[in-house]
Amino acid sequence: MHLLCCPWTRITSFVLPLDDVKSWDVHKIHSLFSEPVVESILRTPLFEEVHEDKLIWNLEKHGNYTVKSGYKHYIKKKSVVQSYTVEGEWSSLWRICAPPKTKHTLWRVYRGCLPTRVRLKERGVSCPSECPICLNEDEDDWHAFFGCSVNRQVWNEAGLQAVIEPRLRQLNDVKSVLFEICINESKEVAGSVAMTLWCLWQNRNNCVWNGVKDSAKEVAIKSLHLLEEWCAVNKLQDHNSQTIGALSQSRQTVAAENQFSEISRATEQLRWQKPHEHWLKCNVDASLSPNSSYTGWGWCVRNSEGNFVAAGTNNCLHKLTIEEGEAMAILEAMREAISQGWPNIIFESDSKVVVDAIKAPPQGISELNSIITNIKLLLQCNSNFEIKFTKRQANMAAYTLARAAISWSSRSYFNNLSSDSSPTLLATITTVSKTSLEPRNHLQNRHLLTTILTNPPSFIESSIVKL
Ligand SMILES: [Zn+2]
């Protein structure tokens, strides 16, 4: 349901439709709402598959609320983004050469959320305010990293005195000092600073929680070792990937052969494949009109020889999502297969979302899920129905039918298409047109279908060319 701007919407199929008929009560809606709202309501599809009213979350396909989508929706609002934007060259922090955990500590300092004792007291936590390392002064950000005499010694022991000291004379807050280093020093030097800062905070925590603290020299050495270890592991990983590259070069012939077979496999996936003997294959697809107001879908059944068996199209003048359209195409094709008595049939769709949802355990409350539930029921009742995902390039017959269906006013059904000449084809199409319910533009449709079936675009599989 896409009626309102609010992401929460209600499936209102039983609020305003006519009794016993799945269509909107146009008179009642006109009497209750303004014209733009009326238009929105009437464009909202009413699925037979939906049986009860539910509140659904529109920003997820399954209709259930998730924190992730809620957060994204909230943050998307321009005013919110602006008020939460924090000034600063943040990219200079993320590019430094240091483990992610040290960058995270730096980020916490930048954002003023490191739980120093002064900050904890400001927020109502009952705790002492003095520095746990020197026990002389209050522990705020500045003291914890630069003001504390013990910690100041760590920077000297780590050989970073020349990087730190001049900046401490010019700048008066931790954030500015660290930003200045990340922006103007090399990413290796900035990495050393980040690692030392992380070790200082670790030493402080160890002192608070375990009553153990290292000397300035020990903290500096630990920082040096940790950074060396991290760099060594990274270099090893780089070396390994280069070795793999060199090895593959020395096996060029084998690689070329493998590549060829991979390309062959990939090309095969891009072509429509015939089903096994005694099986049919039904390709389905959906398409939205250029302004997304209408949805068309089509299906095309072919046999193990690759010959045409039947095809159908339908459309909806309501605004469906592409996934809802794909699911409707599958559902209608399955119902047709049951009524025609086709027992062994593979349904192929190029919508991975829909195919995955059909194969996944039941979840969600959205309209799409109601349609999927019906598809699952039909699959359970028909053991030789299979559902598969296929690449779009191998699904062009259904795609073409779906595209054509957008401009047709009603359901169409095609069968007995002959493989020879145009006159036979035209005669068949005329028959087909008679069986369909008054196409919106009969001549145009006839021309379009002829074009589709006799002069298909080069990307349409060879089997449809035979039509
Ligand atoms: Zn101190």
Structural description of this entry:
With 467 residues, the chain is α/β, with parallel strands linked by helices. The chain has helices at 26-32, 35-42, 67-76, 78-84, 91-94, 100-110, 117-122, 141-147, 149-157, 161-170, 174-184, 187-210, 216-250, 252-270, 322-340, 352-359, 367-381, 396-406, 422-435, 442-454, 462-465; strands at 8-10, 55-57, 280-288, 295-302, 308-316, 345-349, 385-389, 412-415. The protein has a 6-stranded mixed sheet, with helices on both faces. The protein has a two-stranded antiparallel sheet with strand order 1-2. The radius of gyration is 33 Å and the shape is elongated. The structure holds zinc ion. InterPro entries: RNase_H-like_dom_plant, RNase_H-like_EbsB-rel, RNaseH-like_sf, RNaseH_domain, RNaseH_sf, RVT-Znf.
